[in-house]
């Protein structure tokens, strides 16, 4: 710790600003000060009363400084002891200003007079610092040894380069994806992104080292650069000479594999001091104590976690049960991330994604020196360049070039071929052989080669990279490939490992080639969660089975045998990964894995066989669905290769929601000629089109147009490569049967790109069908903001189109208007906003530049909108007036306003308005009828006042635009229109009282012109009197629909009755049971009218008025019951009305029939009823029925049809009571005889008197009864 001569009081005063701004948990410090009796309880309460952290800190420091030196010294002691909780370190990875390191600040104060505290401080010359220097030395030596192992493959030592870190892409954007299930892909429970081609976050190893994150997981496929990143972290740490820096322990993959399945080391001491580095004699306890007490200064790097960690010490460190504040960096492959341990290990996840384009070029130039021909030859070979995004493969590519510079133009393009060449080179160097005798040398050492292959395979099955029980002789073949491992095995002191684990997988595949009987077992294990990591062997195996590779390894396995193995097993490989299945004999914990079509393509690319590709395409029915995948360049190369092998039938490729790198996209473009259809989501189409335009190859653009239905998707940015726009123009040059459709994806600040787009398309605008804008899937800004940006872009391109037309004379404005589809794209409301905004945009340009553009854009301004939608909250009436003058056409105006927003300047627009509407204001959004009416009345008052002042016919014009049948709506809105007009009249009367002036006369034409389908009156309100006054204004009687009548009072009924002379037809609206407590039966329309009439008679005293009888007659008339006095219809109606009256009295207990006396007193002298026309039942009492029987003709005048009609009208129900003479019984018997069998004839016989002869005549002709009711006497008589 650095010393200082300042007193504690001075140190606190000088550091006050730092503490006020950055001290964490001040309440914790206050509590410790209270324990040391520095603060009283009252002072603690005063400090904690403040909620803001900085205010609380300021209050605390004020009290401490007042108390002087002793309190200041105690504060510094507490801050040192609680520094991990209260004092922050720097965190450069956060998007905020870098704050000072307060750990460093507190450590600079000397606590020399406090021996207890001083013993805990780190002395610059103490054992802990010396151990840190030992760790740095070990780190440097380890890194040099690892790099020397890499350089061991280069024959010319002069070409060996010192270690230089070439940046790889590190991405922290990882998310769970839910993809659509396809025919060949099942949704995984957890699927994480595996490739993003851009170094978006600029994350570096230095950030990982300095980050405050305590658990960091680096994920990436084999060879992608995980180890390179953590070794660079180690390198950065080793080069830092700050004595206060941390301890770092790096365990490489061989060590991790060795310890993961072992009980050793059994303690933290043995892990650090026996497995890694032992401190100087006698310092172990001090160093271990410092590590345990200051675990925040410890960094562990565990490189290469495979699956389960069986060692308890490692488990406790990873679980933070040991050294809980230590930083842990781990690396793993993607398949290991799903294992039980890591899937539940919360961490800061970083994807290692290999080299981007810049890094590939930098790496090739660094490794190959200034030989630009070699660099260019690799960069121009897309297949080879795609491999180089994996650092391990880039190293092997450069190694192969170094081996055979004369073959630089024939570099290997498959991974397997690269490893085979490495294999042959190492064997050549080991035996010091010429190429001519190399095959013989390899064949002579087959025993050693097979031994190494067996050990590689067995170690892989055991999930370790450490090979034991190897031949230690200097002349053994293993020394050409293996290096001594840092791992210490319990069974032996010697352990070896390959340069990289991918080399071990290559040797394991070589073992399968030599022992093909094991292939089926490996394929079966690949289908399980436990064995899925073995699939990398299969990829190498497919490459080894290639006929191109066979001649290079025929000294290991004869070509004939390779062809035989290929014929037997290649289809099994395809089926295993295309249609995985649960293997028999495995426990139930093994779940079915996802079908992996992409991996099959990689295997077939390694195999390099058109026949095998055709077999795959047949199995998938020529459909490659890779939706939701993240394809790196190497995978794109494989997919492109498979597609290009199709000769008989074109392929359908599905790449929806995929992500690519630029080299990968170029490879996909190379296969377009073999595609029948290409399915892309809009975002992916942008990527593909950018790659096609960047390539400058016309065939790529033509192929994409064909497959994308002549749509070009482009991301539009402010800073865009002008070459892209130039090539867009080149694409448009060609005339095709189909016109091109542009789909633009706007990003932030893309407005200025409109000029560039315009320049590229204006010359060839007739070849463009449409320009539309694609809504982003993940809106980082609001949808409203995006729409505004689209509108601004369209206005800008119209402006540039007008300028282009003025400059060249070519008519482009009308063409632009057509391709932008403005009228069809925007709603009427949006059209109004667009045209007004365009006017302001053009006006600003004219003012700034002094150029008159508006005349050129006349066609745009006159084309739409058909209806103006104006919201005065964001529209000025003056702007509207200017545009209306420009259009010079009367159009309807739909106003959205409230009383507070109405703009009286609208008066000036009246000459250009055909109708004034408030449709949406009332019906859709605001439902502000009251505010609308108040604003409208203010407008009428303003128009009246202006007319008086200026003499202009302002009031007449306003009245005219409001005088149309559907006012204030665009179409018939029944109830709403009637309610609005009644409210308008009522408000106008109130307005007149307030202003002491007349306004209703101005509204007369409005009320007379409005033609509601029917005026609607809610009898439960007080609007009947208003309706009467409005109806009086009409020139003819109007229909009325009545609701709310079931529960009302007499005064409202009387007010309604006064409206009857002005009503042409009255329709009754059934009462909703939810609106009333009165239970109303379900009735037909006619029954409802009668029920209403009776209900009204029950509640209104019609008899007591001079017009009582007239009111009833008028009610009958408007209800449609008016008939001539002697018509059969009137007779029948009176009978039914009387019957319903009786029923109503029964249901309600009220008397209403007496109110009908005026009607029945005017009944016809002769009742005429046409029963043949009667469809329903005839309701009449018993006495009336007897009168009917007596009136029937008998003898020769008997009319059977009349009797049948009468029986039907009575619904086959007859009640016989009172005195029944023989004549009546004979007539009734004749009628009953007309009933046919099966009819439900119901007869009730309750006579006061009947003779035997009458009874006989009554039932003589009856064939069948449904029901017969009779009293006791009648029963005896019968």
From TrEMBL:
It comes from the Eukaryota. The keyword ATP-binding does not apply. Transmembrane segments: none annotated. Residues 214-336 form the NACHT domain. Keywords: Cytoplasm, Immunity, Innate immunity. Residues 4-82 form the CARD domain. GO terms for cellular component: cytoplasm. GO terms for biological process: innate immune response; regulation of apoptotic process. PANTHER family: AIG1-TYPE G DOMAIN-CONTAINING PROTEIN (PTHR31594), SI:CH211-281L24.3 (PTHR31594:SF16). This is NACHT domain-containing protein.
């Amino acid at each position: 710790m650095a010393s200082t001569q300042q007193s504690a009081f001075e140190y606190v005063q000088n550091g006050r600003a730092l503490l006020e701004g950055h001290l964490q948990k001040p309440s914790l410090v206050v509590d410790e000060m209270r324990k040391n009796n520095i603060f009283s309880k009252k002072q603690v309460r005063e400090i904690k009363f403040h909620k803001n952290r900085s205010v609380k800190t300021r209050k605390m420091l004020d009290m401490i400084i007042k108390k002087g030196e002793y309190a200041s010294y105690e504060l510094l002691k507490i801050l040192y002891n609680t520094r991990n909780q209260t004092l922050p370190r720097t965190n450069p990875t956060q998007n905020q200003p870098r704050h000072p390191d307060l750990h460093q600040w507190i450590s600079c104060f000397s606590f020399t007079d406090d021996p207890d505290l001083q013993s805990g401080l780190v002395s610059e010359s103490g054992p802990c610092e010396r151990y840190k220097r030992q760790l740095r030395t070990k780190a440097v030596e380890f890194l040099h040894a690892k790099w020397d192992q890499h350089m061991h493959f280069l024959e010319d030592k002069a070409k060996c380069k010192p270690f230089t870190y070439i940046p790889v892409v590190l991405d922290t954007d990882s998310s769970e994806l839910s993809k659509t299930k396809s025919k060949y892909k099942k949704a995984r429970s957890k699927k994480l992104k595996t490739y993003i081609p851009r170094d978006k976050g600029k994350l570096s190893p230095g950030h990982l080292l300095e980050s405050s994150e305590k658990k960091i997981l680096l994920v990436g496929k084999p060879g992608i650069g995980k180890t390179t990143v953590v070794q660079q972290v180690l390198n950065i740490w080793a080069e830092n000479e700050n004595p206060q820096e941390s301890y770092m322990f790096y365990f490489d993959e061989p060590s991790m594999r060795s310890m993961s399945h072992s009980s050793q080391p059994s303690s933290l001491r043995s892990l650090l001091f026996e497995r890694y580095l032992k401190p100087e004699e006698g310092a172990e306890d001090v160093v271990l104590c410092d590590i345990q007490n200051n675990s925040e200064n410890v960094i562990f790097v565990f490189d290469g976690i495979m699956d389960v960690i069986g060692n308890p010490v490692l488990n406790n460190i990873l679980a933070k049960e040991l050294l809980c504040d230590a930083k842990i960096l781990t690396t793993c492959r993607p398949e290991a991330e799903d294992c039980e341990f890591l899937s539940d290990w919360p961490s800061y996840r970083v994807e290692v994604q290999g080299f981007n384009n810049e890094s590939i070029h930098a790496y090739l130039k660094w490794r190959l020196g200034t030989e630009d021909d070699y660099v260019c030859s690799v960069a121009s070979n897309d297949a080879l360049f795609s491999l180089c995004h994996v650092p391990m493969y880039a190293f092997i590519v450069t190694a192969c070039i170094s081996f055979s510079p004369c073959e630089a133009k024939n570099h290997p393009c498959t991974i397997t071929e690269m490893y085979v060449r490495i294999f042959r080179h190492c064997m050549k160097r080991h035996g010091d052989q010429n190429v001519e005798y190399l095959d013989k040398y390899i064949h002579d050492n087959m025993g050693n080669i097979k031994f190494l292959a067996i050990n590689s395979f067995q170690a892989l099955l055991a999930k370790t990279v450490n090979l034991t029980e190897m031949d230690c002789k200097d002349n053994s073949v293993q020394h050409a490939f293996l290096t001594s491992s840092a791992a210490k095995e319990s069974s032996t002191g010697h352990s070896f490992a390959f340069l990289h684990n991918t080399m071990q997988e290559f040797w394991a595949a070589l073992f399968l080639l030599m022992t093909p009987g094991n292939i089926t077992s490996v394929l079966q294990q690949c289908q399980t969660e436990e064995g899925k990591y073995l699939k990398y062997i299969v990829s190498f195996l497919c490459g080894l089975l290639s006929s191109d590779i066979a001649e290079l390894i025929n000294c290991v396995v004869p070509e004939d045998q390779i062809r035989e193995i290929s014929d037997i097993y290649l289809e099994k490989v395809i089926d295993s990964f295309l249609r995985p299945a649960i293997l028999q004999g495995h426990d139930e914990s093994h779940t079915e894995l996802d079908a992996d079509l992409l991996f099959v393509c990689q295997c077939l690319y390694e195999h390099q066989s058109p026949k095998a590709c055709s077999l795959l395409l047949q199995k998938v029915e020529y459909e490659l669905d890779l939706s939701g995948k993240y394809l790196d360049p190497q995978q794109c190369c494989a997919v492109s290769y498979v597609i290009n092998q199709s000769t008989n039938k074109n392929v359908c490729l599905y790449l929806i929601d995929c992500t690519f790198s630029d080299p990968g996209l170029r490879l996909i473009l190379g296969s377009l000629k073999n595609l029948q259809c290409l399915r892309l989501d809009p975002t992916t189409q942008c990527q593909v089109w950018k790659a096609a335009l960047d390539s400058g190859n016309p065939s790529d653009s033509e192929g994409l147009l064909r497959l994308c239905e002549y749509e070009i998707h482009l991301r539009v940015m402010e800073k865009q490569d002008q070459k892209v726009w130039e090539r867009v123009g080149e694409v448009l040059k060609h005339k095709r049967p189909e016109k091109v459709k542009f789909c633009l994806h706007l990003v932030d600040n893309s407005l200025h790109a409109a000029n560039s787009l315009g320049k590229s398309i204006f010359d060839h605008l007739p070849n463009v069908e449409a320009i539309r804008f694609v809504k982003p899937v993940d809106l980082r800004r609001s949808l409203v903001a995006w729409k505004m940006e689209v509108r601004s872009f369209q206005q800008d391109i119209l402006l540039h189109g007008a300028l282009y037309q003025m400059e060249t004379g070519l008519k482009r404005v009308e063409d632009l208007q057509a391709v932008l589809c403005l009228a069809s794209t925007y709603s009427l409301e949006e059209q109004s906003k667009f045209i007004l905004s365009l006017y302001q945009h053009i006006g600003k340009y004219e003012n700034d530049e002094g150029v008159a553009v508006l005349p050129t854009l006349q066609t745009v301004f006159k084309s739409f909108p058909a209806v103006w939608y104006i919201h005065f909250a964001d529209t000025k009436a003056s702007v509207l007036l200017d545009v209306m003058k420009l259009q010079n056409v009367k159009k309807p105006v739909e106003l959205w306003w409230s009383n507070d927003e109405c703009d009286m300047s609208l008066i000036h627009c009246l000459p250009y308005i055909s109708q004034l509407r408030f449709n949406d204001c009332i019906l859709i959004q605001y439902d502000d009828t009251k505010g609308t009416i108040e604003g409208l009345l203010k407008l009428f008052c303003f128009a009246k006042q202006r007319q008086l002042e200026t003499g202009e016919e302002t009031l007449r014009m306003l009245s005219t635009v409001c005088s149309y049948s559907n006012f204030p709506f665009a179409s018939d809105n029944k109830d709403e229109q009637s309610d609005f007009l009644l409210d308008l009249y009522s408000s106008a009367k109130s307005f007149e009282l307030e202003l002491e002036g007349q306004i209703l006369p101005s509204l007369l034409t409005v009320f007379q012109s409005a033609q509601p389908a029917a005026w609607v009156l809610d009898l439960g309100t007080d609007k009947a009197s208003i309706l009467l006054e409005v109806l009086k204004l009409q020139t003819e009687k109007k229909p009325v629909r009545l609701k709310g009548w079931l529960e009302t009072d007499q005064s409202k009924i009387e007010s309604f009755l006064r409206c009857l002379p002005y009503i042409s037809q009255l329709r009754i609206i059934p009462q909703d049971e939810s609106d009333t407590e009165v239970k109303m039966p379900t009735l037909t329309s006619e029954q409802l009218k009668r029920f209403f009439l009776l209900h009204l008679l029950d509640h209104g005293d019609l008899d007591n008025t001079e017009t009582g009888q007239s009111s009833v007659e008028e009610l009958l008339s408007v209800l449609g019951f008016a008939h001539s006095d002697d018509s059969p219809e009137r007779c029948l109606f009176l009978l039914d009305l009387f019957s319903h009256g009786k029923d109503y009295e029964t249901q309600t207990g009220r008397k209403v029939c007496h109110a009908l006396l005026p009607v029945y007193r005017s009944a016809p002298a002769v009742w005429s009823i046409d029963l043949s026309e009667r469809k329903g039942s005839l309701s009449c009492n018993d006495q009336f029925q007897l009168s009917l029987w007596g009136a029937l003709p008998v003898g020769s005048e008997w009319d059977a049809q009349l009797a049948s009609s009468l029986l039907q009208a009575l619904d086959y129900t007859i009640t016989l009571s009172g005195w029944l003479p023989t004549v009546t019984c004979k007539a009734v018997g004749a009628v009953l005889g007309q009933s046919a069998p099966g009819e439900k004839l119901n007869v009730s016989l309750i006579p006061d008197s009947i003779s035997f002869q009458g009874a006989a005549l009554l039932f003589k002709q009856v064939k069948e009864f449904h029901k017969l009711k009779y009293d006791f006497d009648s029963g005896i008589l019968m």
